[in-house]
Amino acid sequence: MKALVYHGPGKKSLDERPLPTLVSSTDAIVRVTRTTICGTDLHILKGDVPSCEAGRVLGHEGVGVIEQTGAAVAALEPGDNVLISCISPCGECEACRRGMYSDCSTGGRILGNRIDGTQVEYARILHAETWSLCSRTNPANKAIEHAAFEARQKDVQSQSWEEDRSASPCSPRSSMRQRKSSP
Known about the structure:
five-stranded antiparallel β-sheet, three-stranded antiparallel β-sheet, 5 helices
C-alpha cells in the first residue's frame, strides 16, 4: 500500500509499505478514506519533533472504515465509519484518569510520531474503543454523531492535500486517484 513517509528534516516520499496488522487486542485496522495535515505534521517535516524518527508514516487524524478489530474491541465492528482522533488514549492509566489524554502512558500523541500514522491507505489504530466517534455505536445519538461525522469529514477533506495536488504530489490519495484515472 502507499504511505507518506518521513525520511528526516525536509525529506518525505510516497513509499510502498506492508498492510498493518493487529498488534494488541485493543487495536483496529482502519481503511483511511480521508486524512489531513496539521501543524504537528509540518513541525515533524521541519525536524522539530525529535521523537519522530526517519521511516515513520506521517499523519494523526482522519476518517475511515473499520476493517478489522482486536478481540477486546466490542463496541466497533467491520464496516463502521469512524473518526480517527489525533490522540489515542488508553482510558486506564493515571494520566487518562486525570483527563490528560495526550499524556497517556501507552498512547497519547503517538500516531504519525512514535507509531505509523494516517497518511496511508490502511492504518493500525491502538486503543480503538477510546478514540473513535462511530456513527453506529450510540443509537440514541445517531443523528448527532452522523452530523458530527459528516462535518468532520468535510473539514478533513477541505484541509486534505488531496484538494491541492500541485501543493504536494506525495499525497497517498492524490497519487492513487491519478493512477486510477489513467488508462
